[in-house]
Amino acid sequence: MNREEALENLSALSAHVRGQAARTLGDVGLSTDLPGLRRAQRNETVTYVNYALQETIRRLTKEQAPVPSSDEADVVSDDVRKQIYGKAMEWVTGFLLHEISSPIGLVRLASKRELGERWESSDTKRHLESVSRVFEAIELLKNAASVPRPQEFDLSALLDELLDVYDPGVREWISTIGARPFLMKGDPSLIRMIVVNGIRNAVEAQQSAATQPTPHDVTISWGDTDVDYWFAVLDHGGGINGPIETTFEIGNSTKKEHIGFGLAIARQAVETLIGSLTLEPAKDGGALYTARWRK
Question: Are 186 and 150 in contact (CB under 8 A)?
């Protein structure tokens, strides 16, 4: 792609093409292209393309990112750090999804054609399904880092909806404690990620415990203070194995059928809402999962 084509492709319908154009102009663009690049950046809605435009503009204007002194670095608040990290997470995951998911789809299509009747029982299918689950998790991670879209909704109704997927035998040992209705303002998609992971981990921990679950073995509670909302899940399962912080690392899971993104997604969602997520041993065994985020 030459410079003229890149300038024209800044307004292409494909985000992939726009991203290529932005990166090309970083190498072959001229300072006279800056007005068009800035205009494209103002109109760009795809995060990773916007970052590519930003980097190209920086290169062409020869602006160097300032290096903060140690004193200045110490002034940066945790909230700002979390927002910067979230932006970076959204850009990286968006780039991965856009650049790699299409080739994976082509591999799947070619494999089905080449294997024919052997496809359904093939290791190729099994491995590609595992890759697909990873990409689904990456997409959730990207969404968890996106800008919140707050609206008023009933948290207790959301919890009921999520608990309805469990059979009656499981519901017998799950208790809920909180106001009904519980109207709050927040991004339902982000809060769903937080809630889903807390409930699922507690239920699975209880199901894998050495003893048969009994009523109240999993307790879900929620509420608010003057400054924040909170959501907690207490279980009496096998507890936490190993260092707690490693459970939040991407790819870290003690369950064979899990790919280890759940807690990382939940934590990113909480931090996008300007909050915190903790997992700690419960007093009488098991684990306590607690999320708090700003009103």
Answer: yes
Cα(36)–Cα(38) distance, integer angstroms? 5
CA dihedral 76, 79, 80, 82 (to 10 degrees): 120
> Rounded distance, CA 128 to CA 147, Å?
31
Three-state helix/strand/coil letters over the chain? CCHHHHHHHCCCCCHHHHHHHHHHHHHHCCHHHHHHHHHHHHHCCCHHHHHHHHHHHHHHHCCCCCCCCHHHHHHCCHHHHHHHHHHHHHHHHHHHHHHHHHHHHHHHHHHHHHHHHHCCCCHHHHHHHHHHHHHHHHHHHHHHCCCCCCEEEEHHHHHHHHHCCCCHHHHCCEEEECCCCCEEEECHHHHHHHHHHHHHHHHHHHHCCCCCCCCCCEEEEEEECCCEEEEEEEECCCCCCCCHHHHHCCCCCCCCCCCCCHHHHHHHHHHHCCEEEEEEECCCCCEEEEEEEEC
**Model-level pTM?**
0.58
β-strands 228-235, 287-294: how paired? antiparallel
User: Which tokens hold the place of 15?
Assistant: 């985000």
- Residue-wise pLDDT tens digits, 92-137: 666 665 666 677 778 888 999 999 999 999 999 888 887 777 667 6
